[in-house]
Amino acid sequence: METQTFLTRVADRQWHALDDDRVVGRGYAERRPDGRLFVSVDAWHETTFDRLAAAMLAELPAPVYTVTDEADTDLTAAWLRAGFTVRRREWEYAVPTHPRLTGLEQTPPAGVRILPAGQADEHLLRAVDRAIRDEIEAGAGWQSMPAEVIPRHAGDTIVDPSKYAVAATPDGYLGLIRVVVGNRPRIGLLAVRAGARRRGIGRALLAHALGTLHRAGFTEAWTEVQESNAAASALFASVGALPVGSNLELMR
């Protein structure tokens, strides 16, 4: 006898699809620190996915977001069927660390010195981060930056001050780079004040970060670059970074 699949909301932001009391699909919703609501569905069958997605979207407030690996065409197609559209694409790059491969020199421009991670004055670090964010938002918009970079409480955007190296002058900080070291080091943010660009400060920060990783025994790092950020794409391409994948952020 053919069984029937039932959907049930088992928690505030969690749904199950049940077939004869067996879980055949799960749906989740998560509100990220930036306030946006992201959803995911794990189901073996297309019809179960579609039913779970429809049930979730009927109960969740709009807008709703999700992220897919662009290579997973079936998953992307499933969210498109649910009414989502592609909001942004991020390319993932593998970045070599050896100076022979990157061609980077660790000599910063005249009058600028690079303070290693953990040595920045926290007040000045937060000030330059805020100034850079305001400049980017007034120009290309913060959507051109990695999706992971999110605001914290009371406008605080520094996740962990010990992860940031900065480009310093006697008058203040001109740029910053954040690297999270794990099994695979990740460059989460590289940015320079608008008035200090095209002076080699971004390259100097990148050279410092990659050189530090190289001396620690890492052969490569990884980073994501928004597709529309041509300057960042050009910078990483110039140091031998190779695209290894892409992610899509979809919105409904």
From TrEMBL:
* Pfam families given in the database record: Acetyltransf_1
Please give the SUPFAM superfamilies that the UniProt record associates with this protein: Acyl-CoA N-acyltransferases (Nat) (SSF55729)
Report keywords, A-Z.
Transferase
The transmembrane residues are none
User: Can the keyword Iron be found in this entry's annotation?
Assistant: no
One GO MF term on file is:
acyltransferase activity, transferring groups other than amino-acyl groups
Q: Which domain of life is it from?
A: Bacteria
InterPro entries, per the entry: Acyl_CoA_acyltransferase, GNAT_dom
From the record, what ranges are coiled-coil? none
Protein's name according to its UniProt entry: GCN5-related N-acetyltransferase
Specify whether DNA-binding is a keyword of the entry. no
Q: Which residues form the N-acetyltransferase domain?
A: 112-252
Species of origin reads: Catenulispora acidiphila (strain DSM 44928 / JCM 14897 / NBRC 102108 / NRRL B-24433 / ID139908)
